[in-house]
Amino acid sequence: MGALLFYILATVMVVATVLAITGRHPVHAIVYLVTSFFALAGIFFLLLAPLVAMFEVIIYAGAVMVLFMFVIMMLDLGHPESGVRPGWRQWFPALVLSAVILVSLLLAAGSPATAPRTGGEGVKEFATLLYGRYGVAIEIISLQLLFAVVGALYLGRRR
Amino acid sequence: MMPDPVEIAFVIAKIGMVLFVILTLAAYLVYAERRLLAWIQDRKGPNRVGPQGLLQPLADLVKLLTKEDVCPPAGDRWLFFLAPAMAAIPAIMTFAIVPFGAPLRLAGRDLPLQVADLNVGLLLFMALSSIAVYGVALGGWASNSKYALLGSLRGLAQLISYELSMGLSLVPAVMLARSFRLSDIVAAQAGCWFILYQPLAFVVFLVSILAECKRIPFDLPEAEGELVAGFHTEYSGMRFGLFFVGEYINIIVLGGLAATFFLGGWHGPVLPGILWFWGKALAFAFLFIWIRGTLPRLRYDQLMHFGWKVLTPLALVNILATAWWLFLTGGA
Fold first, then answer.
1. Among A154, B87, B97, B210, which one has the highest count of C-beta atoms within 10 angstroms of its own C-beta?
2. Which residues pair with B111 in a beta bridge?
3. Looking at the predicted structure, is the pLDDT value of residue A142 above 90?
4. Has domain A1-82 been given CATH number 3.90.70.10?
5. Is B127 within 8 Å of A69 when comparing Cβ atoms?
6. Beta strands of B90-229 (E only): which ranges?
7. Predicted ipTM?
8. Whole-structure pTM over 0.90, yes or no?
């Protein structure tokens, strides 16, 4: 049952992602990408990580993609016919990088897997780990985000 | 492990019952709103179909189902047809996590009156509420009409403004209950409702869910005075009906969630829990209708300023105060 669900979700995810990359229409690409995030959230659920699944939907599908959509509508970018098809200069680095990632994934999948955890990640364990062991990293990342916000404000303020 | 067939049957029965109750309530909420608004405005309201107009929702349903389903020729057909479902489904799905009554004891089993008791229940609500805006945004965009597009843009801007304060206003409730699980949050309010500890968080949450429902002080995406009907200008028939019913389902579900987070869920003296829960949820629905009959509409920049500069800081200060309070009273 779990394996069947996984293959269905994985197929949906791969197909949706490919469509999001190849589609010429930005709004359609967003819809496909949101579908893909949903399938990924389902996979996280199957992996007994409901917290990660929820964050996937809240942050990526709910916040980031909504902002993308807002910008596309606001700046009226939804005209695929006027868009420029990326040439091989744009395609080539992306292809090389994805080939590297794919090969490393295949190598990693070939090596013996670590024992699967049975209990699943509880919210409390996740929080203690995040703010205890990785507390400094969290602070550094939030500082970086703060810099980004201040920078954006400065750029937006210039007349 | 084989799942227990009795349990499966009970879950399916619960889902069926919840769907039936929610859809019927949503239809009658439309009727109740028309009657109450008429009462507020000293008119009569719909009173011709059946006794006191009680069959009006059925008449509306027949009308919506038999109307022609039109898609604008320059619109995006697929997204245009998908969008109403994208608006209504998250609203219905959210109810899955709401505990709507005290657990039943039947034949030696404990049967919780809640479809899914997830340990990330509150986060699921946040996730579904942020997804629900795609129906509005895509519906308006796919219509390829300027009014609809402006409505969708405002819908997106509105979501960005209230979503943060809504999430932050729920953090104190989680801090007090020490869990994202909605049944735990309700259980933590057995003695004292969270609204007594957290009046500020309750007010922020109430304003945010008013914005989430797109109800009158914040009904900017449809603002009929300026945008014809906003994002659903081009819709007709049952597709318009889905947007419409989705909005009323949202009112019921968010009322139920507000009751769950701040008013003790199904806890209450004397009466059975299920009556308390529905009483509280419908009291919120009544409040929403009353507000609609009373307040004027804000401008969308006023809402954005209000969300970012008033509600969010208030919610943040409230979280800090709650944390200090818990720390000093030894609750942490």
1. B87
2. B104
3. yes
4. no
5. no
6. 101-106, 109-113
7. 0.79
8. no
Distance between CA A63 and CA A69 in Å, rounded?
Answer: 10
Is A61's CB within 8 Å of B179's CB?
A: no
Residue A150 has a pLDDT of 92
Long-range contacts of A73-80 (CB under 8 A, 24+ apart): A73/B137, A73/B141, A73/B149, A73/B152, A73/B153, A73/B156, A74/B153, A77/A26, A78/A25, A78/A26, A78/A27, A78/B141, A80/A24, A80/A25, A80/A26
pLDDT band, very low/low/confident/very high, at A80 (cuts 50, 70, 90): low
Query: Residue ranges of the domains in chain A?
Result: 1-82, 122-159
Determine the residue of chain B that is closest to A57 in CA distance. B127
Q: Which helix (H) or strand (E) holds B174?
A: helix B146-177
A67 touches chain B (CB under 8 A): yes
Domain boundaries, chain B: 5-328
Query: Does A69 touch chain B if contact means CB atoms closer than 8 Å?
Result: yes
- Is the CB of residue A63 less than 8 Å away from at least one CB of chain B? yes
The single residue listed with the structure tokens 């629900």 is B132
pLDDT band at A78 (very low <50, low <70, confident <90, very high): low
Distance from CA of A126 to the nearest CA of B (A): 12
**Which residue of B120, B159, B160 is in closest CB contact with A50?**
B120
A60 close to B (CB below 8 A) = no
Residue A64 sits at the chain B interface (C-beta within 8 Å): no
User: Do B95 and B206 form a contact (C-beta atoms < 8 A)?
Assistant: no
